[in-house]
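Let us practice reading a record.
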Amino acid sequence: MPSSDVTEDVDVLIVGAGLSGIGAACQLKQDHPGRSVVILEARASIGGTWDLFRYPGIRSDSDMFTLGYRFRPWTDAKAIADGPSILRYIHDTAREFDVHNLVRVNHRVVSARWDSATARWTVDVDRTDTGERTTLRCGFLYVCSGYYRYDAGFSPDFPGVDRFAGPVIHPQHWPEGLDYAGKRVVVIGSGATAVTLVPTLAETAAHVTMLQRSPTYVASRPARDPLADRLRARLPQKLAYAIVRWKNTLQGMAIFQLSRRRPEMVKAMLRKAAVAALPEGYAVDTHFAPSYNPWDQRMCLIPDGDMFDAIRDGRASVVTDTIDTFTETGIACASGEPLDADIVISATGLNLLAIGGMELVVDGTPVDLAQTVSYKGMMLSGVPNFAWTIGYTNASWTLKADLIAQYVSRLLTYLDRNGFDAVTPDATGVSAAKPFLDLASGYVQRSMSEMPKQGDALPWRLHQNYVRDVALLRRGRVDDSVTFTRAHAGADRRVAVTRC
């Protein structure tokens, strides 16, 4: 691409204008109104996941009282919200906090190079609309691009797929105007996307079959929160929101901890709920009893039991089998059972992509992410003035994103007050043998070798525990296990090093 010289220098550069990036900008706008902030978004619009995914029925897989921002209450009636409502919430938040004008769409970050002499990042950016390459400089690089590829979902190489006469669609690339009314649809997969698609498609399709290689734990939850409805009628909006947010957070943590400590009890509870919701004699142990323990993989949420309803009414069915081959008219399973289909949906997961796929270079040395250690689940050892938002795997993404945004804000304040220009996590002596994400899901395991590691103890260990992280990130120190440095403007070397 043709390149241009450095166009501008900003204090904080945020990469990604989805739920995390907009939230981070709002936090900085409130706490650091004098700082210059720019948000770069590779796609043509803000919203991230909630703008990208357009498949039927797309919705949150957790309640909006925890997926919503801490500083802006979710006011819609439904606690389990549809994708367009969440996208509207992000846009409204960006406008309310006046950060929408900070976003530059069609700007994909390619690389970032840190120079310790000046304590600045030089960031190369491709303009996906014009083909031009531009360059910016910033003091702090804040990546809010999530951890999966936006341009391609994961699709296995299905044997014989070219023989199939109908379309094979990945939900990440749902074609506009696809007509599935009166059609036979097979959804391959058993995760959150699949259990969302099945009941929605079943409303108008002739029949929908979910073909899964192995079961997933599925839990029904009311689409509306009764306590939230009562409190909002009696208390100020922000107070009601905070109460329900904490209630749902603690409830989710309790279920997670019970799953870890008493997995057989949770298995029995989930099985009992499924038996009660499905037709008498249904093969629950075949289709809804995984071999792993609850929360070894993320649990799937179905609002008001909609998927169970579709199965009970005969509009949908579940087949637990493997694919032998595609045929002209559908899929032949390994058991010999044929599945006739007009449309096949490959809800087979995502591809991980750390830090948006950008290249990091520190003082001329490329950063190998797999050799770094995650600091407080948000920074990387040996990488100065850098933060990366990764939400919870066992709770709402935004709970952690909000805490990270508050921590970054506190860290910038500390740098200002003490006259430092840079902060670098120092993992000297830290044992880093644990995987970054503690999930057995296929999409995680496929790319785990490319991700940072975590250590055995704080601040290098992730606990996936909101209460502990409130103490660590919102209340805890910002000067532990890090090196602070100062740099003279225009100097060719650092001066004054302080390790805390």
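A brief commentary: Residues 3-151+351-499 form a domain with the FAD/NAD(P)-binding domain fold (CATH 3.50.50.60).
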